[in-house]
Structures are given as C-alpha cells and as structure tokens.
Specification:
The protein has a 5-stranded parallel sheet with strand order 3-2-1-9-10, covered by helices on one side. By secondary structure, it is of the alpha/beta class. It has 5 domains: 116 residues, Rossmann fold, CATH 3.40.50.620; 97 residues, Glutamyl-tRNA Synthetase, Domain 3 (Glutamyl-tRNA Synthetase, domain 3, Alpha-Beta Complex), CATH 3.90.800; 71 residues, Orthogonal Bundle (Glutamyl-tRNA Synthetase, domain 2); 42 residues, no CATH class; 72 residues, Orthogonal Bundle (Arc Repressor Mutant, subunit A), CATH 1.10.10. It has 19 helices and 12 strands. Bound molecules: glutamic acid (GLU).
Amino acid sequence: MTVKSRFAPSPTGLLHVGNARTALVTWLYAKAAGGTFVLRLDDTDEDRSTEEFAQAIRDDLIWLGLAWDEEHKQSDRLDRYAEVIEKLKQDGRLYACYETPQELERKRKLQLAQRKPPVYDRAALDLSSEQIAAYEAEGRQPHWRFKLDREVVEWDDLVRGKVVIDMASVSDPVVIRSDGSPLYHLCSVVDDADMAITHVVRGEDHVTNTAEHIQMFKAIGAEAPAFAHMALLTGASGEGLSKRLGSLSLESLRDEGIEAMSVVSLLSRLGSADPVEPHGAMADVLAGFEISRFARTPAKFDPEDLKRLNSKILHALPFAAVADRLRALDLDAADETFWQAVQGNLDVLADAVAWWHIVHDPIEPVIEDVEFCALAAERLPDGELTLETWPAWTGALKSETGRKGKGLFHPLRLALTGQERGPEMKNLLPLIGSARAKARLRGENV
Ligand code: GLU
C-alpha cells in the first residue's frame, strides 16, 4: 500500500507548536514510507477562514521543510459535498433538526442536572409534519444531523492502540448548518475518501470524531483510513498550552530566531520514546522516525528546550547552510572563517551581526590594566595573524608577566572586544587583525 497522509488545518489562525507537531508527524509518516503528503485547507467556516492565514500556513510548512504533493481546499468542493449530502438524505442517514442553540443548551443543562450524559435526545426524529410546518412558518431553518448507529466502534490506533467507543454516549453530529453549509465532519470524511487518504494523523481531541467518521465512511460506501491520534502538548509543568499558543506560533518563534530545524528536532521526538537530539538536516530526522514510539500521555513542551536545541544546531551548521541567511542579515562579506569563529557562541543566527561589528567596526575597548595592555600591544606581532598567534602571544605574556588564567586572558578579551564573554579569542584575533588589535589595547575606539 502506498501511504497517503494529509494535514488539514483550518485557515483561521496561525500555526502553533501543537499543530506544527501534527503537520510534522503526518509528513514524516508519509515520507518515511515513501508516500504522499497532502495539504488540505478546511475552510468551510467562511467567516473565520482567510487567504492570509492560508498563505501563512503554507509559508510555515515551507519554512519547516514540509513540502506537500497535493493541495486542496474544501471551499472548492461544495458541489461534491452537496451530492453526498443528497445521497445520505435519501438513505435516511441525515435528519432535520429545528432546535435553537438556546433550546439545545437548556436540554443539556437539564440532562446534566439529572446526572444523565448530555447526549442529543433525537427529539427531531419524532416531530410531526404539523410541528415542522409550524417551525418553518416561524422562519426556522433546519440544521441536519448524521444519525449514528448505536453500536460500539473500534479501531487500532497507530499511537493509542485499540480504541473502543460506545456510540450510545455520543450525540449525533451536526453536519449541515441551518444556513445550509456543510460542517467539518462530513466534508473531512468525503475528502479523505475521495483523495484516497490511507492515514489520518491528528490530535487526540479528535478521538470521538473519529468514531463518528468511521460510521460516515461506511455510510458513503468508503473504507476508513488508519488513524493515529497524537497526545496533546502541555506546558513544562503540565498546564494546558491553549492560552500561550499565541506566543508559540511558528511565526513568533521564527521572529525570535528559532531555527526551523530546532522546531523539527524537538517536535518530531517530543512525547516519544526516542531522545530529542539536535538535527541539522531533515534526512536525519526521517531516518529514525517511528510513529509507534509516541506515547499516549501528554508531552511537555518547554520553550527552553527549543532554545537549547537552537544553539546546538547553530554550533554545528556548516557555513554553506547559512551563507545566504548571513547575506540577508547584511553580512555580505562574512565568510567561512568568520562563521567558524563565531558560530559556537550564537543562541540565534542574528547574534552573528553583533560579532561582525565587534570584529570590523569601532568599539569601545575596556582597559582594566593600562600597563599590561600596553605591553601586550607591543608584544603582538605585526602583519597577518593566524590561529597560532593567540597561544604564542599569550604564552609569551605569561612568561614575561607571571599572569595566568583569567588574569591573563580576561583583560585581553575586554580590550579587544569590549565584552566579558564571547567566541574563542584564538579565532577572533586574526579577524580583528594586528593593527586594530594594537590600537584597541592602547584604548583607542577603533
Ligand atoms: N481542520 C481540522 C482541525 O484543524 C482537521 C482535523 C483533522 O485532521 O481531521 O482540527
């Protein structure tokens, strides 16, 4: 069987780490099996869906490295849904309901007060033609529900194992709004069937929906795909993420300088039995990917983990992988030597800019000990400096002054960079150059 999976976001907001994880796992599952990945935009909610959000989702997926083989959107397929709806009405699987939201809420409260499960009572099935005529005369438009079979639905979930749901405790889902527009459930099933989706990966909040969908697949004469329900993400101490999701959008992470591969490295393994490791390339992530390794329990997402991964990934990235992006940061002249000198000191790529300026533009040197720095300037060789200069130069200063350790190195770093900490001086010194280094050691702002 050729695997075909799909990611089906609603373009009503930005992707956050939660749905990015679904997208990533869905993509990895297909690609690890040599299969096809579909992007499907669930845009039947006309009021909230926008092309801007759809484009932001595409941009985020591209940024993550999740190319798709097909793209569809539900608003293009309304005729097809209408056709299926007509057939299901003829088959008696859909029934018209006239309750207002307030009436439904009242029923629900009453059921709860009587300690009964708040399952829709199917009162609409008992309406007489006079009652229906009266509602319509009042101007009420019906919404339509899918009549579930009151049976037990089971499936073997790729993450959760065997799932068993008794449909006696589930309300018949509304599949057509009172304005006649079809809702997610039926559209999703029709799409998955028509597009020959073999695997549906989504969040565990969809488990009950899946039981309903399995009956809908049967009702339209299609085979249900396999399902994998990912446990939800929580915050570091187990709290729900929903309130913070705004700040955890991919867009905001990108703006903070988080590398796409940091997000991919973390989300591809978080909540699985496999360790989270920094990966610089998607091929490595793909190689060890195994969906059955994911646990059923919620996974803790900690933005600090992302930051740590980010530094590790930057520290190992070859120059070729960042050359274009350094140019985009206006570091046109940055070369491999510069990259190798500073990469070990970056939390985010943009930190390279400050180091570029420290090496190439005037700084305010910090002179802790005028005499020592003047001596150091005298002892620094003229002309081209190399990676050997620093150990030889500081070695000579050590013998001459008796200084060692921090007392030897720190005043030199402060004078040469104006900073307490930074990349290894052995690497920076040749970039600063002899003339500028000597001037800085004498306290000049160069
Ligand atoms: N649009 C639905 C959502 O974002 C899709 C769920 C699914 O994968 O079927 O929750």
